Amino acid sequence: MSGENADTSAGSSKLLAYLQLFRAPNVFTAIADVAMGFVFVRGSFDPIGAFACLAIASCLLYTAGMILNDVYDFDVDLKERSTRPLPSGRISRGYAQLLGYAMLVGGVLLASGVCLVGTAGDSPVWRSGAVATLIAVSVIAYDKILKKTLLGPFAMGACRFFNVLLGMSFAASGDLTPLSFEMSHLVVAGGIGVYIVGVTWFARTEAKASSRMLLTFGVGLMAAGVMMLAFFPKYAPIELAKRFHIEPTFVWPMALFLLTVSILRRCLVAVADPTPKQVQAAVKQSILSLIVLDASVALLMADWPYAVGILALLVPTLLLGKWVYST
Fold first, then answer.
1. pLDDT for residue 6
2. Boundaries of domain holding 163
3. Residue 177 DSSP one-character state
4. How many angstroms separate the CA atoms of 201 and 156, rounded?
5. Which of the four pLDDT bands, split at 50, 70 and 90, describes residue 270?
6. Given its phi and psi angles, is residue 228 left (phi above 0), alpha (psi -120 to 50 degrees) or beta?
7. Looking at residue 252, which CATH number applies to its domain?
8. What pLDDT does 1 receive?
9. Phi, psi of 154 (to 5 degrees)
10. pTM higher than the cut 0.85
11. Tens digit of each residue's pLDDT (9 = 90 or more) over 70-121
12. Most exposed residue of 144, 213, 260, 275, measured as fewest CB within 10 angstroms of its CB?
């Protein structure tokens, strides 16, 4: 019996190590981005097969980014965070690197194959694969090259920007850009991207006492990202504007303003008291708030059950977050 208990304990420990390596709670924020993007252009999750392919591809790409982040931070973590899965030896660095790159390839291939599940009008069949490739390039650029430079936060923002576009990629649209996205698509995806640039700036020194100036700059960028979401209806074509479920000229910006106050309140507390505990708590809330922002945009563009479905992703995120760190 004791042997069985030991095996069970070892198995649980191994599972926990992988969940920590994957930053499992945050994976649901990637799904929320894709779900919002898909609903934005389709008005629903139909066809469900195409949505599922893009959502799974996003999970693979996001998880690969988390794995490779720890692979390339191995020497730093060995000194500062020795209990994490790789420096503690619970998962080998070589295996993690192989797994990370395999997930990147798998995500790109899955997104590229979405055209086999169905087509969306005159949407370019190659577009989902192209966007997934841009995510993979952004992931590698951030984790391997740019993380510690001034361009690091922008590379992280690019990952989220392209992740929203991945959800939007399965739909007919105009030819205003090289990837055939409408301006309203780019504004919404850009809003999420700029928000994450701000979160990344805010979190750059979360493990130690942070600079108030750096934190304030991060808060400003986060607010700018939400403002882009607030005013995207200005760029929406008439056929898209007909789907608005609330009056966009005043109610929508005001609703997002009130939501922003709630999101940034914790960040302002951290600016006043820039200790690691306060900053990390603010970063965690800011990441979780992505799901709320995505659900809010979905509520504007589709029937309310889709927004509720996206918002429900908070449940597994919060449950896993009780025993798996997310930063």
1. 43
2. 22-313
3. S
4. 10
5. confident
6. alpha
7. 1.10.600
8. 44
9. -70, -35
10. yes
11. 999 988 888 888 888 999 999 999 999 999 999 999 999 999 998 777 666 5
12. 213
180 lies in a domain? Answer: yes
Intra-chain end-to-end CA distance of the chain, in Å = 37
pLDDT of residue 140 exceeding 50, the answer is yes
Alpha helices in 204-243, H assignment, sequence order: 212-230, 238-241
Spatial CB neighbours of 61, under 8 Å, sequence gap ≥ 6:
30, 103, 104, 107, 108, 132, 135, 136, 139, 163
What is the SS3 assignment for 182? coil
Number of domains in the chain: 1
> Which amino acid appears at position 149 of this protein?
T
| CA–CA gap between residue 73 and residue 71 (Å, rounded) | 6
Token readout for 186 is 């780019």
Burial status of residue 5 (CB atoms within 10 A of its CB: 0-12, 13-18, 19 or more): exposed
Predicted confidence (pLDDT) per residue in 190-238, tens digit:
999 999 999 999 888 665 666 788 889 999 999 999 999 988 887 777 6
Cα 20 → chain centroid: 17
For residue 202, is it within any domain? yes
Tokens 């998962």 correspond to what residue? Answer: 91
Residues 6+ apart with CB under 8 A from 194: 157, 221, 222, 224, 225, 228
Question: To the nearest whole percent, how much of the chain has pLDDT over 90?
Answer: 53
Between CA 196 and CA 313, with CA 198 as vertex, the angle to 5 degrees is 35
Residue 225, both tokens: 């990202």
Which residue has tokens 């709630």? 262
Residue listed under structure tokens 């996206």: 310
Per-residue pLDDT of 142-166, as tens digits, reads 999 999 899 999 999 999 999 999 9
Rounded to an integer, the average pLDDT of 15-43 is: 93
Which residues, including other chains, have CB under 8 Å from residue 307's CB and lie 6 or more apart? 295, 296, 298, 299
The answer as to whether 17 is a domain residue is: no
Q: Is residue 216 part of a domain?
A: yes
